[in-house]
Amino acid sequence: MPTCPRCALVALALVAAAFTGCDSSNPGRDLDVVDGVYVLEALAFDPETPSLPTADIGEQLDADGTRLEIFGADAEAQMRVRYLDGRGTSRIELTVGATRGRATFEGETQDDVDKLDALFLPADFVLTYDAELANQLTGTFTRTGVDLEAFDPDLYRGQRNNRGTVTVTFRRL
Length: 173
What we know:
The protein has helices at residues 5-20, 31-34, 110-118, 148-151, and strands at 36-47, 55-56, 67-71, 76-82, 89-99, 102-107, 124-128, 136-146, 162-172. It is of the alpha+beta class. Mean pLDDT is 86; it is low at 7-27.
């Protein structure tokens, strides 16, 4: 510890300044970069079993009506999913953080997590983006225990526990 009073004050000021910048609840410095509305471009599950075709989840959704809206100032996001089969629209509330080209999303409630699971998306996931423009958000995830029969009972009869890769792409409007 410095012996002169001014040096001690400077040292204390530096320590205070160092800890003032640390906020463990900070959702990320780049939320303003990803803030906005995105429309779904692609969502698919590719099973590891070679004999099973890729499940194009996006085909069951209204691409223009399925949107991801990120509210950067609030560190929140909302995914609105519009189904083509008459199920209507579903709303999924998410918390979001963004930094260094990675936007992290997490379902806020169990209901939100269940809705993500119905889309083969994990409860929390990361989408990558160009650090300057963020015109596209993309992600690839390995999933296990996927019930393909629930997605398409005719095509995937008996396929209730599958492992594979989910790919998703959203484009900024």
